[in-house]
Amino acid sequence: MRIDQFLWCIRYFKTRNLSTKACKNGHVKINNKNIKPSKEIFPSDTILIRKNQINYSVEVLEIPKSRISPKLLYQYIIDKTNDDEFINKKLNSINTNLKIKNAKGRPTKKNRRDIKNFLENKKK
Q1: Among candidate residues 45, 21, 44, the one with its CA nearest the CA of residue 33
Q2: Given CB 3.0 to 4.6 Å as the disulfide criterion, which of 48, 66, 69, 100 pairs with 29?
Q3: What average pLDDT does this structure show over 53-62?
């Protein structure tokens, strides 16, 4: 099965066109090698997918015949994505929300609360 079709079948992309574009743009790698959308995949291949600033890592167990239900997804793949990827994404979104617009002088009371909450959550 082609890699773009496989990514669509295991529901990492909504359409085949999106998965094809991701392969062409270098966001999909098989065994750490850039590939074309027509690359054939086999069981035991490791696929690295860069989507929404998160690096997903997936190992292929079996090739599905067609698009599968989300309930049956883990019969075909093993998700090896680190939890650190999701934590870093969350921290980056918090950091962008904490930026103070038109900062002049000392922070407002709301800004100080936001900074305090951010630092407390980071310690946990």
Answers
A1: 45
A2: 48
A3: 90
> For residue 45, which of 65, 29, 69, 21 has the smallest C-alpha distance?
29
Domain boundaries, the chain: 3-81, 90-123
pLDDT reading at 21 higher than 90: yes
**CA 93 to centroid of chain Cα atoms:** 14
CA–CA dist 120, 13 (Å, integer): 36
Selected residue with higher pLDDT from 86 and 31: 31
Residue 72 φ then ψ, to 5°: -95, 5
For 3-81, the fitting CATH number among 3.30.2130.10, 3.10.290.10, 3.30.530.20, 3.40.50.10540 is 3.10.290.10
